[in-house]
Design goal:
With 120 residues, the protein is of the alpha+beta class. It has a single domain, classed as Nuclear Transport Factor 2, Chain: A (Roll), CATH 3.10.450.50. 32% of the residues lie in helices and 45% in strands. The chain has a six-stranded mixed beta sheet with strand order 2-1-6-5-4-3. Strand 1 and strand 2 form a beta hairpin. Helix 2 crosses helix 3. The longest helix has 15 residues. The protein starts with a helix and ends with a strand. It comes from Paradevosia tibetensis. InterPro entries: NTF2-like_dom_sf (IPR032710), SnoaL-like (IPR037401). This is Nuclear transport factor 2 family protein.
Length: 120
């Protein structure tokens, strides 16, 4: 049985990891080699592209942190969890829900949706 809460916590940790070596370790541990990530704004495939995508988001939102919102859920190889992004210790400015597909207990496909985005 897959522990979706641990997977979701590691996923959030990845999005908060500034250094490339730390991201590489999290990707190796928790993501399939051919993993794909897609949301309404960006897409990436494989560890190197996903790490670069995360680095870009961290650079765009300095001082912000991702947090897990609510309780992750899973059945079979599918799961979902919600997250927030905002200044450390403050209410999230952006919120989303990600749907995942697992392979051998690792993330293989992540499809992200933005649930709350600030008005431009």
């Amino acid at each position: 049985m897959t522990d979706i809460t641990s997977i979701a916590n590691d996923y959030i940790a990845l999005w908060n990891t500034q250094d490339a070596a730390g991201r590489a370790a999290l990707l190796e541990r928790g993501w399939a080699g051919d993993a794909r990530y897609v949301d309404p704004l960006m897409a990436a495939q494989g560890h190197a592209e996903i790490s670069a995508l995360v680095a870009g988001v961290l650079g765009q939102f300095p001082g912000f942190r991702f947090t897990l919102l609510g309780q992750p859920q899973a059945h079979g190889v599918h799961g979902r969890f919600s997250w927030g992004l905002g200044p450390d210790g403050a209410e999230p400015v952006v919120e989303g829900t990600d749907f995942v597909e697992l392979a051998d207990g690792k993330l293989r496909r992540v499809t992200g949706f933005l649930d709350k985005v600030p008005a431009a």
